[in-house]
């Protein structure tokens, strides 16, 4: 015979079920939530700057928060626009130069691989004419399937482009309103927490805030230093695309190991296309090897600090796990979610070590 539930237990079960249903709804609305989550993460990073300007006094004039928000958002958009102005013109001027190196690269690949392919019974000439002939044969044999795939890709790609345009336009608007009402939003979230847990929840939120603030500030400094280092070293080594590749490598360092690997691949491709010998590859190996040593032994310990506790393996796992579960929204949430989980795990471990189950 089941035990009757008390009124408090019924209320607890009701609210837990309601919050679970709300969480499932948010998961189903993942693509719609992408601009909101992106704006919230950017607002979290920019809010300290808004608060500092908001608290300024210019004589008898108090700076309104709306004006502070406008100034910070404009500065943020100007920084992004400046980055685009740096990278895009260089790519526009340098990519044709790299394209001119493709025939020489194909000739080297043909001299290296064609004898081995002939030994395997494969007769393909790896030059522009040979590749065009191979592609033409494949398209002639399966033209209907390729055309259907192209149409499907165009439909999906067009929808994706429209979605990205909508997101890019919507994020600044959401960012403005979130920064304007940031403290009100935080107060409403705190007001929704049951009073019996408010003290513990606020304490954990402050730990997460400290963890993320230290991590983000330190990581931004690491990205800036490495972007300058890679751009300068690649330029000294004679790379035509030193500036965009160096800046992208520095920015991608925010994703531990994966970002460094992608930057290394971009630099190796530029080396193979631009240089006729192995000097470019050797220069890339030396520059990126030294950069990894500088980042791992000097920059990250000093600027980010091992005391923060966000292990690179934990960040990689969070990126992959949340990306698998929630798509692009999960990637946006990976860093704050990993910080929250690490703080929760620390409290859970402390509770476990002090429990009678562990000490008995």
Characterise the protein shown here:
This protein has helices at about 5-30, 30-55, 65-100, 100-120, 130-140, 145-180, 180-190, 200-235, 240-250, 260-275, 280-305, 310-325, 330-355, 355-360; strands spanning about 55-60, 60. It is mostly helical and about 350 residues long. It has a domain at about 35-190. Helix 2 (about 30-55) crosses helix 3 (about 65-100). The radius of gyration is 27 Å and the shape is globular.
Main attributes?
AI-2E-like; mainly alpha; two-stranded antiparallel sheet; 360 residues; 14 helices; 1% strand
Secondary structure layout:
Layout: H1 7-28, H2 30-54, E1 57-58, E2 61-62, H3 65-100, H4 102-119, H5 128-141, H6 143-180, H7 182-191, H8 198-236, H9 242-252, H10 258-274, H11 279-304, H12 312-326, H13 328-353, H14 356-359
Antiparallel strand pairs: 1-2
Helix pairs in contact: 2-3, 2-6, 2-13, 3-6, 8-9, 8-11, 8-13, 9-10, 10-11, 12-13
Q: How many strand elements?
A: 2
Would you tell me the overall average pLDDT? 75
Largest sheet entry = 2 strands, antiparallel
Q: Which stretches are low in confidence, meaning pLDDT under 50 for 5 or more residues running?
A: none
Percentage beta strand: under 5%
Shape: globular
Radius of gyration: 27 Å
Summarize the structure.
The chain crosses the membrane at residues 12-45, 66-88, 161-180, 220-239, 245-273, 280-300, 312-345. The protein has 360 residues and is an all-alpha fold.
């Amino acid at each position: 015979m089941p035990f009757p539930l008390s009124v408090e237990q019924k209320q607890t079960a009701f609210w837990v079920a309601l919050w679970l249903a709300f969480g499932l709804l948010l998961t189903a609305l993942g693509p719609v939530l992408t601009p909101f989550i992106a704006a919230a993460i950017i607002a979290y990073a920019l809010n300290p700057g808004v608060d500092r300007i908001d608290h300024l006094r210019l004589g008898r004039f108090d700076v309104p928060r709306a004006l502070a928000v406008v100034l910070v958002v404009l500065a943020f958009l100007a920084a992004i626009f400046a980055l685009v102005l740096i990278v895009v013109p260089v790519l526009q001027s340098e990519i044709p130069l790299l394209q001119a190196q493709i025939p020489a690269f194909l000739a080297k690949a043909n001299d290296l691989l064609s004898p081995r392919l002939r030994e395997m019974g494969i007769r393909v000439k790896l030059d522009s004419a040979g590749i065009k002939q191979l592609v033409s044969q494949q398209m002639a044999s399966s033209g209907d399937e390729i055309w259907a795939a192209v149409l499907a890709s165009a439909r999906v790609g067009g929808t994706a482009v429209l979605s990205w345009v909508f997101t890019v336009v919507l994020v600044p608007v959401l960012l403005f309103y979130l920064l304007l009402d940031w403290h009100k939003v935080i107060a409403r979230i705190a007001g929704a927490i049951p009073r019996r847990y408010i003290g513990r929840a606020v304490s954990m939120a402050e730990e997460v805030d400290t963890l993320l603030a230290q991590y983000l500030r330190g990581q931004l400094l690491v990205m800036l230093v490495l972007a300058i280092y890679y751009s300068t070293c690649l330029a000294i080594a004679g790379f035509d695309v030193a500036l965009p590749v160096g800046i992208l490598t520095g920015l991608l360092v925010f994703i531990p190991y994966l970002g460094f690997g992608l930057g290394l691949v971009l630099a190796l491709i530029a080396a193979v296309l631009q240089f006729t010998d192995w000097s470019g590859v050797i220069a890339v190996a030396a520059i990126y090897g030294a950069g990894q040593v500088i980042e791992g032994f000097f920059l990250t310990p000093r600027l980010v600090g091992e005391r923060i506790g966000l292990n690179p393996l934990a960040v990689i796992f969070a990126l992959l796990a949340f990306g698998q579960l929630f798509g692009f929204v999960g990637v946006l949430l990976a860093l704050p979610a990993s910080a929250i989980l690490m703080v929760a795990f620390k409290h859970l471990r402390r509770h476990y070590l002090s429990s009678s189950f562990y000490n008995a």
